[in-house]
Amino acid sequence: MMDRAQEEEELYKLITMIEFINVGFSSVCWQLYNEVPLVRSLPLPHQTILRTAEKIYVFIQKEVEEHKATLTPGEPRDFTDAYLEEIQKPEKKSSGFEEEQLRVLLSDLFLAGTETTAAALQWTMLYLVAFPEIQ
User: Among the entry's GO cellular component annotations, what is one (predicted)?
Assistant: First the structure.
């Protein structure tokens, strides 16, 4: 179990990686990676983006494993616990509730949620600075 300082450091690293990926996904190198198969084998910045994405995937996998180890049936603490409980239901075995799908969902939530929240906070601050009378 990590103490609070370690958890905050892990979270900071995760947010930094997510920011890097969000910027990377809009880069020209990433667009070339998607459109020109030959570029995939070249040592360009997209390789760093892929390595960073793998680190995020490992983090998410670790979190899922920790949730599985500490899961209390009938008492979900969060989305991950609720999803893991659904996976365990016999009628859900072939319904698409799988661990891989959970990892993809968590990845999407982290990537999209972090960027959206950061943008909303930036615009809020800008608005408050531009119009101090509304503070």
Answer: cytoplasm
